[in-house]
Amino acid sequence: MRVDVSPDLLTRLDRPGPRYTSYPTVPAWTSDFGADQWRAALDALAAAPDRETSVYVHLPYCVRRCHYCGCNAAVPECRSDVDRYLDHLERELDLVCARIGRRRVSQMHWGGGTPNYQTDAQIRRTWQLLADRFELTGELSLECDPRAAKSEQPYLLRELGFNRISMGVQDFDPAVQEAIGRRQPEKVTRRWVDASRDAGFESVNLDLVYGLPHQTPEIFADSLARVLDLDPDRLAVFGYAHVPWAKPHQAAIDEAALPSGPERFALYQQAVETLTEAGYVWIGLDHFARPEDELAVALAERRLHRNFMGYSTRPTLDMLAFGNSAIGDVCDRFAQNTPLVDPYEQTVARGELPVVRGLELSAEDRMRRSVILHLMCNLELPWEVTRESWGATVPELIGGIEARLEPLAGEGLITLDQAGLHVTDLGRFFLRNVAMEFDAYLDDPEDDRPRYSRTV
Ligand code: SF4
């Protein structure tokens, strides 16, 4: 899919914007929402034992910090830091599960950090902490760094019950890897992919990043070809978000070596073209899947969902989240745990839930969330989509929305008709810009804090 974008349009569309894993996004949350409010959310969940539930576990430790990292990661002083962290994770699990009881979980994901930085014994322990408290079913996935452990580890992960595995590649080029502080020989990644397949994982996902220092079309073409040779079931292609004001370690990246906005756009377009020509289905913002993969099937059947873990095939309503910085979504309340490991451990050691901010969604928040997530998943928005739950069409509920959307239609990003909105081929590259028109929290002219990565 090749689209032409004038430099002028690209400049106008290149602005900070959320990725809408949910709505309202974190900057709209408040520290007035804390442990008391989260306990009320957990009690509401306990009163609804049949609501589908997912679990996210944050495991923050990594071998070393990559310069480009945008995650909440930490480098431990020694391996025993992980044991201490797991002691506190256990305490947090007990605090939460004492209120909600043993629930059936249809999606679990371990993220980080590097979940497989743990030793085999620590991985077994973490799994058991969860298996003792939840009935684990459905998609059980984790992120792995092939550099962090020997390639026998996928067999252990599969034996425990994980069925999906995701690995970071970013770019195979040695100069790019050097510039981002992440040396990862191709043979190491290949060993892990081969072992994951041999161990019987249902789905192997690889992550790529565009917009990294020294990346050129030639370099990225080579990386894409190498990744395709590994034949992953799914790929995620993220844009590098250079936000050194929020992630000071990114100052180690040479800004002069970063691709410009138009160059970034060309790299993204190159990824879309290469992967779709190779037979992958482009899903939502930044995912690609084999047509037979569950994610692509869910898209075709209009069952795709989006939550804090990204795109999902499960219509999961609630997400419990454990560990420092983890974000939960329960009974229309969002909550985030304290970001740093030490305060997280100190808080749970006192027997308190480590929530530092959150939000109880208003009726309007919930309506706008349903609209934005429908758009982010399906690339269209029938005006009637809100009728069943909200008793009116989208334009009736969001006054003036059609006038707001007209300029995007004029730029060719969407088409509008009486039935609703459709994202064009061009608009697919600017899905965040389209979704931003439905966001009620972006309009504060007083607020010019840099809070989001740029959309191009
Ligand atoms: S391995 Fe991942 S989480 Fe850890 S520092 Fe590198 S990018 Fe961040």
Descriptive overview:
The chain has 456 residues and is α/β, with parallel strands linked by helices. The chain has two domains: 1-24 and 362-456, Arc Repressor Mutant, subunit A; 25-320, Alpha-Beta Horseshoe (pyruvate-formate lyase- activating enzyme). Helices cover 38% and strands 20% of the residues. The chain has 17 helices and 17 strands. It has a nine-stranded mixed β-sheet with strand order 7-8-6-5-4-3-2-1-11, with helices on both faces. A three-stranded antiparallel β-sheet has the order 12-13-14. The chain has a three-stranded antiparallel β-sheet with strand order 15-17-16. A hairpin with a 3-residue loop joins strand 7 and strand 8 (287-289). Helix 3 (80-100) packs parallel to helix 4 (120-131). It is globular, with a radius of gyration of 21 Å. The mean pLDDT is 94. The chain binds iron/sulfur cluster. Residues 62, 65-66, 69, 71, 73, 112-114, 145, 168 line the site of iron/sulfur cluster.
Question: What characteristics describe this protein?
Answer:
Arc Repressor Mutant, subunit A, 456 residues, alpha/beta, 17 helices, pyruvate-formate lyase- activating enzyme, 2 domains, binds iron/sulfur cluster, nine-stranded mixed sheet, three-stranded antiparallel sheet, 17 strands
Overall number of strands: 17
Secondary structure: helix percent: 25-40%
Q: What is the number of helical segments per DSSP (H or I, 4+ residues)?
A: 17
Bound molecules: iron/sulfur cluster
CATH architecture of the largest domain: Alpha-Beta Horseshoe
> What is the H level of CATH, i.e. the homologous superfamily of the largest domain?
tm_1862 like domain
What structural class is derived from the secondary structure elements? alpha/beta
State the major sheet.
Answer: 9 strands, mixed
- CATH class designation of the largest domain: Alpha Beta
Distance between the termini: 17 Å
Looking at how many chains there are and whether they match, the oligomeric state comes to single chain
**Tally of discrete structural domains:** 2
- CATH fold annotation of the largest domain: pyruvate-formate lyase- activating enzyme
Percent of residues in beta strands? 15-25%
Strand arrangement, major sheet: 7-8-6-5-4-3-2-1-11
Low-confidence segments? none
Mean pLDDT over the full residue set: 94
Rounded to the nearest angstrom, the radius of gyration is 21 Å
Shape: globular
